[in-house]
Amino acid sequence: MFASRTKKVVIIEDVQVTIQKLSARSLDNASEARQIAVGKVTRQLGSEIMRTLRELPDRVPEKEPTAEEKQKARFTSYDRDYVLTAGIASWTATHPDGLPLSLTDGIPDLEESAATMLFESILELSLPNAEVVGKD
User: Fold this and answer.
1) Which of 11, 67, 79, 89 has the most CB within a 10 Å radius?
2) Global pTM?
């Protein structure tokens, strides 16, 4: 019933990261943040370029995506920074001097691979399985 009670430990290098399931409200906020970001890009491109992109001929039909590709495609609807901030509950990361590294200081400094792994892990924990949802 309460998403924050569902937690999982993810190990990245020598750091234990405790992630938590996102609540329905957090998922909505992450989706809204992503929509706002996409809207900003669209406005920056301008209506003329967007019209041109829509009028381009369709590409060669792609092969059917794998189950893993379908799962990851669901993640594009969510803002990564929001998901990381809401979904990382704690970690054992430290500064070079051994003092604890706060989430506030550490999340913006994550390497791309670590950020992607944590983002995907949080959403896998938070979103219902696509195959189960589709069987209704």
Assistant:
1) 79
2) 0.76
For the purposes of burial, counting CB atoms within 10 Å of the CB of 41, is it exposed (0-12), middle (13-18) or buried (19 or more)? Answer: exposed
Query: Got the DSSP string for 62-86?
Result: PPPPPHHHHHHHHGGGS-HHHHHHH
Label residue 96 left, alpha or beta by phi (over 0 means left) and psi (-120 to 50 means alpha).
Answer: alpha
Q: Where are the domains of the chain?
A: 3-57+65-127
Provide the residue type at 124 as one letter.
E
pLDDT digits (tens, 9 = 90+) for 53-110: 777 776 666 788 787 777 778 898 999 999 999 999 999 999 999 999 999 999 999 9
| Domain 3-57+65-127 indexed as CATH 3.40.50 | no
